[in-house]
Design brief:
- The protein is mainly beta.
- About 10% of the residues lie in helices and about 40% in strands.
- The protein contains two helices and eight strands.
- The strands form three sheets. It has a four-stranded antiparallel sheet with strand order 3-8-5-6, with no helix packed on it. Strands 1-2 form a two-stranded antiparallel sheet. A two-stranded antiparallel ribbon has the order 4-7.
- Strand 5 and strand 6 form a beta hairpin.
- The longest helix is centred in the first third of the chain and has 6 residues.
């Protein structure tokens, strides 16, 4: 079942996956935090974003920072909970549950 904060969100095809796009305040602020790994599913795209926090996360995240063309310009693997990560050149971040 999809998390309530992702219901009604637009979806985007990014890097071969269809993911919700965080457009509202709750989805942008919370991201994947407080969710269990299985509910995080394919991840979350956060447009207009160059930094994220992992406070409240229950699992590690892979963070893909994207440029305006949707290309990965920086990848951070297995970022643990309680961190703040940024990439100054990014225009979006794809949050994915780390394997």
């Amino acid at each position: 079942m999809e998390p309530i904060r992702f219901r009604g969100l637009e979806r985007a095809e990014i890097l071969g996956s269809r993911v919700p796009v965080a457009s509202g305040l709750p989805s942008r602020l919370l991201g994947l935090s407080l969710l269990r790994r299985r509910r995080a599913a394919a991840g979350l795209l956060i447009p207009g974003c160059r930094s994220v926090h992992t406070f409240g996360m229950r699992f590690r995240l892979d963070l893909l920072f994207l440029d305006e063309e949707g290309r990965v310009i920086e990848l951070r693997r297995a970022v643990p909970p309680g961190r703040f990560v940024r990439c100054p050149g990014a225009v979006a971040v794809l949050e994915l549950p780390s394997p």
